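Hey, quick one: can you model this chain's 3D structure?
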Amino acid sequence: MMREVTTLLTAYRLMCQAGAMAATYEANRPICKYVHSTSRGHEAIQIATGLQLHPWDFVSPYYRDESMLLAMGFTPYELMLQLLAKADDPFSGGRSYYSHPNSRRADKPQIPHQSSATGMQVIPATGMAQGVQYLEQLSSGLLKTGPDGELPVVVCSLGDGSVTEGEVSEALQFAVLKQLPVIYLVQDNDWGISVTAAEARAMDAYEYAGGFKGLKRMRIDGSDFSTSYTAMETAISYVRTERKPILVQAKVPLLGHHTSGVRKEWYRTPEDLAEHAQRDPLPKLHALLREEGVEEEVLKEIADKAAKDIAMAFDNAVAAPDPLPETVQQHVFAPTPVTEEKGNRCPEGGSKSVMVDAALHAVEEIMQQYPEAIFYGQDVGRRLGGVFREAATLGEKFGDHRVYNTAIQEAYIIGATAGLSAVGVKPIVEVQFADYIYPGFNQLVTEISKSCYLSNGKYPVQTLIRVPIGAYGGGGPYHSGSIESTLLSVKGIKVVYPSNVADMKGLLKAAFLDPNPVVMLEHKGLYWSKVPGTLEAMMIEPAADYVLPLGKGNVVLPAHPKDVQEGRSMCIITYGMGVYWAKAAAKAFPGNIEIIDLRTLFPLDEALVYATVQRHGKCLVLTEEQLNNSFAQALAGRIQQHCFRQLDAPVYTLGAMDLPSVPLNMTLEATMLPNADKVEAAIRELLAY
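Sure thing. Here's the predicted structure for all 689 residues.
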């Protein structure tokens, strides 16, 4: 009984702190100017959860979980530093909102980057459970356990309104399919900003969970601390021992505002507010402690001390320094170990290979060397090995636990890599065609690209996303698209686009070793060099030790020095299939044309591009993408700005026609796309200046 009362008193102290924090923020609205939510009404279930988690566990809180953070041991002062966007904010260095934590502290549960997009954390959190399960299967030393070998659990916290997000269903589907060790804690306060539960959903989270076979579920009163503690004790024990998923729906009142910027009195009736106030967890816990014999004076002393401590913490946080302006560009990416070209690019006695095989061999070598590497996506498992046979034999060689199929879930395929990376697994994943990446774009933008920056460098996402791309042979409107401009509009990811065997293998190895997210665009028309004029993509495959750093372009065709000296030369800046259109067109102008293969679109080899343009004075930027508002046009603008004084002509751009998609008919497809003849015409026009 004494242990139980001690726990109740701890919870009471934390609830008093949370209440004092909310009151302090409300009383100082001009100072607390950044948008924030508080946990008022949700404290019981949050504290009951946080008190029972250990440093070897993983947690994905959501933006109202300040009480859970207090229960895990974070101080009010630390939370306030984030509230006020201060330099010493331990989570993001002043870059992210209140109660958007991340932590790698050895004495606390591990927390990856948390976004504000409701429900979006469920896929990365499930990815953490996926990673934990894999490390268990491996008996990997990367898996941290308790002092008596206790296995980790993953807790994913979310509001009930977010359960209607489609990506939540992808995560639940994968969790039950693979029986992952994850707890979905759903805090249901009946409101989604101004939308009531009755307006927004036909069922609550508990009822919804009933549709996922193999997902255990519980429904509890989340405003009662004792009930919440017992329920979470049961849920955590179940997942820790059985290694299966569970969903806990906790009914809670909403006592605060949705956020500081969306006031409860704007849309909630006095009757609704009064009904929620009757379920306040703090008076309930107070009454329970009195029943247990705790004196009123003791409880008052706890509350008074909490108020004083919070006032002092707030004053200290207000006085803390703001971030320095010069820190704003820090932690966009983590440093990569691959900064130089190394290894044997062209082994003696080697035989020529096609690009698809070079990629396959690179992945195989990676998986042989790194046990923590896995490869998954649609149809990449042992039965087919990818629709382009780009994963052929990998399933047989490494087993279904390392190479496996997923459902049609691009959001999960991409987003889970954030969670996998957070626990130490190194994922290589595939989106079947570039046109299919858009369902996964939310995860790429919201979770993956921002993780390193908003965690102040603590959680870069190591993921390699392979994407077959490009048009040829009547692939049609949903299998032929180019997406590089869309990808390049996202900051915090890297984009590579090899055009030959050696670059494919070297860049793939470097991309895997890069601790940051890399999207690798692989042109389907170059995989086997079946497109006329692309035989040079076939090369002797580099040795297993070969790596090619990202951000280094290549001169694939130099102009003759005499033509350059006499002003009869120009350069073509291109990548992918454009390299071969440029090479074919250049045959009509021997010595006049220099061709740069960018190889990496971000980071871009600007030094090579600008130096080349300045030397020739004339430039064509060539792409397969639809031209209007493309990366190629943006690059042309940058070239004009940096090379204006050396230019003898406008920077030309050439790309596909500005059509909504690539048409199926091969004549129409060819009409839309660039080709050697179109490039030759542009060269003639430029050289005439």
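One thing worth noting: Residues 197 and 367 are 47 Å apart (CA to CA).
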